[in-house]
Each structure stands twice: as structure tokens, then as C-alpha cells.
Amino acid sequence: MTETTCIEIKNLTKTFSNGEVRAVDNLSLRLEKGQTVGIIGADGAGKTTLLRLICGLLQPDSGTISVCGLNPVTQKSLLNAKIGYMPQKFGLYEDLSVLDNLNFYAALKNVSPDFNQMLEFADLKRFQNRLAGKLSGGMKQKLGLICALMGMPELIVLDEPSVGVDPVSRRELLKMVKTTVQNQTTVLWSTAYMDEAHGFDTVVVVDRGKIIYQGKPQDLAADTLGFENKVIELMGGYAPKPSLVAQNYHLNGSGDGFAVEAVDLVKRYGDFYAVKNNTFHIKKGEIFGLLGPNGAGKSTSFKMMCGLARPTGGTARIMGIDIVKQASLARSHLGYMAQKFSLYANLSVRENLEFFAGAYGLKGKLADEAVSRMTEIFGFRRFLNDNAGDLPLGYKQRLSLACAVMHNPPVLFLDEPTSGVDVITRREFWNHLTSLAQKGVTILITTHFMDEAEFCDRISLFYKGKTIATGTPQELKRLAGAQSMEDAFVNLILQNGREIS
Amino acid sequence: MLKNFNRLKALIKKEFLAILRDPKSRIIIIFPPLVQLLIFANALTMEIKNADILVMDRSNTYESREFIAGIENSKWFGNVTRAESLREIEQKIDRQQADAAILIAPDFARNLKKGQTADVSAVLDGRVSGTATALSGYFTQIAQNYTLKLAEKSGKTAVPLSIETRVWFNPNAVYQWYLVISLNVIMALVVTLILTALSVARERELGTFEQLIVSPYTALEILTGKTVPPLTVALIMLSVMALISVYCFDIPFTGSFLLYLGSSFIALLSFVGVGLFISAVSKNQQQAILGAFAFMMPAILLSGFVSPIEDMPPFLQNLTCLNPVRFFINIGRGLFLKNMPAADVAANLLPLIVIGGLTLSFAAMTFKRNLE
Fold it and tell me: Who has the most CB within 10 Å: A304, A347, A389, A419?
């Protein structure tokens, strides 16, 4: 261990469930001080376990860890003062105000920093008396970061801080980290965004509890897409197969016309317009992306269109059926996949499939057929009698998709379906979606991944409750004068922000 | 319609599975009835047994000794000992070495022979008012038995008694009977309320509620789906508890069992309405459980189970008219012990129907507002 080493790990192993699951498997790692390190890998590869071991939140089975020259297990209290940790859910007290949270963390770290300056910097000053639970995702993230940064730690550990956060907020976050940390501060940042990881000093690719790559991201590839492909290659590769879901899909009522229409949709809370006069028409077989910063009103629009929220004005039609007037009938044409896993965790895979088959009116032989079809297509056979809650993440996501498509709906509503999902599973997922669209299924999707936005036929960009641009990805990029979708997104938002303010 | 029925069937099946798979719900189904059986019914009795009695016989005649024998032979009392002086009585009761004392006046036998009222005083420990009340009841009964016996023997009419207490329908004053019947109702309340309160709140907490709303189910279907399983569970439980009451606690069931089941169904509907309403306004399971208890506590206290409704201040008496538990306990006691006629059952069912209708439509409304 030299002066310049921040973390040194030797032959670290950590198992769960009586040794059945090797989350971290004989892993060795050495990280220099003053670097920003990206940790990437598939779901369940052991990223979170590794970070928690480094922070002393878990006890290793064997091997040694040294963080800032300390042992995280035996010298935890000394180490605590040196590290700032931000867990996946930001670690905020949602029932306390922004200021209360700051005061609490300051007291915890025994420091008395200048809150004003910090709040100003994060642009949270206006919201300092608001409850943390009532902040938008991007603001929670910034607040969580301020709390983690308090007391000028030598090591900052951020566990997937940008899940479900829009590109503008992500850029702000990165800027905040870069400007606050000093030369000697090390940042450990686990992420599912390849563009984010590509900008770091070092990346560490974790797979099945082992490190399969450590080095400069630029050494792998010069651009983000190439980097993503390289990472996928490292993790075992992905070869697109013909989508069995699409092949077995029985679509009724295809043809011309619009599958989904939003007509002057308005949602008002008191004086505040969450959505103003939103109108768009989605053709059959189109993949339509709803993009926008957190809190721009895209989720509200999405919810109004599938009947989760009642519009203050206007309406939406699914396959020509009014969602307000004939809710039940309109919903029967929908397949829906929620942001977080929302199937019955206590029920088995089979029971979940059976329930959703029944819920959409499949009965007897038809229901049995649908269940076995989904079992075959998604490879659920060995999990059939396991509780859905115990499935590996990738399979949970597959089960959600299976429940959404098993009644062959002509329209799919997908709300950030790939949030927190690793890059290979995402590729597979999009393979299904594009194949389904080719068959004539209409898909409405929200996402924060800009590479996914490229797969959409058309995109509607939301900002402050309004649609600020609609068009194909190429059109939007041209409009913004940008090379990548992410730049287009940020440029268009900033342009509009200036116009409004 | 058939398609919709099929879809409803799938939902009801899912709700049953959800109850059976959720460890919290499972405990709630199995635990309370067991508690009732094992603990409450045996420990919570207000019947006094083994009370220690002092007797001071200043008459010291054949008649007085016969009266004392009546006390000694009673199954309610433990040690019956002689006291020599008032002072001894005072000390022993004060130190709680005795629960009560009986004083027989010197002119006891004389008055009896003359056909006049004979005096027996009972000294009771007012600090333990429950015991005191029970013992006073027992003494009155013993005195009654004694005078009846006396009258039989002499062939004369019985000496008029100044105190006339008669406990109807429950001639042995076995408190357990009342307790078990009321507990059946209260257990059904606990089970139904908690199961229903958890049902929507659990789905909201886990995010599955949105999935349910986006499916073609209507608000009414979801309401039905959430009502049937807890109602069925509670109805089965009530029947089992009724059987246990009859066969294990030897409580007579004098009314119509069919009527009991029918009334239970309606009463449970009103409980379900309250539970679903609580669930529909709760954000998570903790809130739902707290809400359920916030309702249950006053509902049980104001049901006539803990203290008679007639003894409450008028304001609270009026309030009990909103309490479904009160009417259900009335029906339960009536059908078990006094062969309550259908008309009287109906009189108690009417408020239950009103309460049930109101709470259920209220729940459906809250539901619907949250849906859209």
C-alpha cells in the first residue's frame, strides 16, 4: 500500500444464501487516489455488494479490504468520517424537509458547513422547506449528493445515482461532483449508463463477482456506442435472435388509422398545469417515445392516457375508444409495464401469468395456451413455481413484459421499462420491441436512455408541461443542431428554458 | 358478461392467494381465534370462584347454621371461616385475607319464626368492585334459595324478600357465555378489518395497484374482488367459532343458525366496507393497520361488550348507533341465548344494512377517485 492508493482489495469473497450465491468471487482490485471510477456490469454481477463491502456495510467471507488505509469492518468509525456514501435510493429522510435533512447529515458528520452556498449551488434554495419526499427525482439526487459530500470525504461512493434521472439532471450531477471534489478525492460511481461511464477516468467492469476489465474507457473505444459494444463483448456478447414474442403474436385489428390519440390533454393541480394542451396521434405499428426531464409532465401524460390519472380536460383514445368514457374497454386493448417491478411478489410465476391471463378475459384452454406460450418464449420453465419476487432481475423484467403482452394487445404502454436494467438485457428487450412494432403493435414508451430514444420511430419531447418538439430522432437532432440524441435533448431543453425564463 | 365473470373469478382467486401467501394475513386468520380459545375465554372471566368468606354467627341457632351450610356448600367460595369479632372482620378484609364477610344478626332465627324479615349483612371489599358485585349477587341468590327451602318446609308462603335480582337467559350467571359470544364477533371484526385494510394498501405499497387499475377491471369489480375473500374467510371462522362455542363451552344455541349465518354475512359486509375505506385512503400497510386499530378500539369499547350501553352518557349512547359491532353482538347474544325472533333480528339488521351500504359505497367512491 502506497501513499497514492485509495482502495486495495485482495482475494475478496462474499457469498449469500449459505454460500449458494457468490456475489463477489475472489476479487482483487487496486484504485489510485484522485480518480473518478465507473463501476459497470450486469444486474446481479456484484456491483452493489462490492460497494457495500468497501463502505463496511457488509462483512467479507474472506480476503482483505483496505480503504484509505483502514479496515472497513474493524475501523468503521474512523472510516465513516472519510467516506461519503449515497445508496441507490439516495438515503434521504422523505418525511423531513430539505433543510432538516442537511442539518441531520451535518450533525452526523460533525461539521457545520455553509448550507446557503450548497443549496445555491444545487439550485435547491427555493425548495429548502419542502419535504424531501416531495422533490423530483433529479432534485432528490442532488440533495442526496450534497449530504454524501458533506465533510469533504476522501472517498465518495455513489451506487447507481442516476437511475431514472433525465440527461439534463445527470449532466448537472456530474458537474456538481467534478467541481466539488478536490484533487485527492476518489469517486466510485456505479452506473448503467454507458455514456456516463465513458466519461470517467477509469472503468471497472464486474461480471459474476469478478473483475473482467479495469482501465481507461477510451482504451476500449473512442465513442460511446463503440464502448457499449465492447462492454457487451466483455460480458459475453449479445447476438440478436429473431424475437419469439413477435413471432407468436396474434394481432387483431391492424390496418390504417391511429392506435393512440391524445386530444388536448390537460392536467391541472390548483393553479399549476402539469400538462398543458397535449395533442398527438400515434400511427399503428409505431414506436413513440415520450422524453423529457423529470417533472416535465411526461409521466402525467402517460398516466392520463392509460387511465391512471383523470384528465382535467381533453381525452385520449386507444384504438379509437375513449379512455375516460369507456375506460374498461379501452384498457382491454392495452398492455402495461410499470417503472418498477409491479407483479405479485408473493405469487409464483405461474400464478402471476394465470392471473393476468384471467384479468384480460382469457379463459380455459386459451388461458392455458397463453401461459405455456409465455413460459416457452421467455424460458420460465424452471422458475414456474418460484415466487415472482425471488426471480433474478432480468427475469423479473421478462415476466413483466410477458404479463403485458400475453393477451396480444394492439397497444403497449411501457413506463421506463429498462430503468436499472443492464445493457445486455436492454438489447434483448429492444429486440422484442422493434420486432413487435414491425408486426404492427403500437408502442408508447418513456425512457431516460438516449440510445434507446434512437430506436423510436418518433419522439415527443416534453418540457414544463408542454410538447416542445415532435419528430423522428433525425429531425430532432437536426432541429437542435446536435450530433447525438443526448446533445439534442439537452440543447432543446436549454433553448426552451431560455425562451421561457 | 360471462367474460367479465371469468375475469372476476381470476381476481378473486388472486386475492385468496394473496391472503394465504402473505405471512401477516396468515397470522391474522389463525392467531386471534386461537387466542380466544386458549386465553380470553378462560382467563378473562368475571365469575368469581374460590372467594374466601368470613362468617360471624351471632344467632348461633339451627336456622343460622343451616344458612351458613348453604354458603359452605356453594361452589363459588373457597375457605369459609368463623370470625369471632367485628374487629377481626375489619382486619382480615383490610389485609385482603378475606374477600367478604357475612354477619348474621342475633334475632335471625327469632324473626324467621315470626315470619318477619330476618337480617343478614354482607361486608364486601369495595376496592375490588368487580368481585364485590359478583359476590353480592351470589349472596342474594343463596339467601333466596334458603328462604324458598324454608317456605317449602313450613308449607307457608315465602318470606318477602327486599332484594330481587334475577339474571335472565343466563341462569347460572356464567359470565363466560356472554364473553365467548361477544368475542366471536370481535374476532370476526379484527380479522375482516385487518385483511381488508391490508389488501389495497399492500398493493399500493408494492406498486401492483397501478397494474390492476390499468387492466380492464372496473372499480366495482375490484371492490367485489377485494370483498369476497375476506368475507368468506371471516364467515367460515364465525361458523367454526360458533361450533366451538356450542360444543366446547356448552353454550346453548337457541335461535336459528341459518339466521345467524345470514346476519353474519350482512354484518361482515359492513366491516368490509370500513376496512376497504381505510385501505383506500392509506398510502401503505402501516397506515392501514393503524387506521384499522383506530377504528377497532372505540368500536369495541362502544359495543356494549366492555360496559353496558345503558350506563353510558347519552351522547355516547347515540354514538353507538353508528357502531356495527353493537348490533352484531346484540344479534349474536339473542340468537345464542334467547331464541331471538326473526323480527327482532331484523330490527338489528336494519342499522347494519344501512351502515354496510354507506361504508361500502364510500369505499367504492374513494376507490374510484383514486383510480381516475
Answer: A304
- Render pLDDT for B304-355 as a digit per residue (tens, 0 to 9): 887 778 888 888 888 888 999 999 999 998 998 888 889 999 999 999 999 9
Residue A322: φ, ψ to 5°: -70, 125
Please, are residues B206 and B199 in contact by the beta-carbon 8 Å criterion? no
Rg value, chain A, Cα: 24
Q: List chain B domain ranges.
A: 2-44+174-371, 51-154
User: Which homologous superfamily is B51-154 in?
Assistant: abc type-2 transporter like domain (3.40.1710.10)
Strand-pairing partners, residue A205, are A40, A213
- From chain B, the residues in CB contact with A396 under 8 A are none
Exposed/middle/buried for A284, CB within 10 Å: 0-12, 13-18, 19+? buried
Domains and CATH numbers, chain A: 5-234 (3.40.50.300), 259-333+410-501 (3.40.50.300), 345-408 (no CATH)
Q: CA dist B352 to B258, B268, B270, Å?
A: 17, 9, 7
Cα angle B62-B68-B69, degrees, rounded to a multiple of 5: 85
pLDDT tens digits, A330-368: 988 999 998 777 889 889 999 999 999 999 888 889 899
| Nearest residue on chain B to A311, alpha-carbon basis | B372
Helix, strand, coil shares of chain A, percent, nearest 5, are: 40, 25, 35
Q: What's the predicted TM-score (pTM) here?
A: 0.77
Interface test with A, best of B198, B214, B283 (most A CBs within 10 A): B214
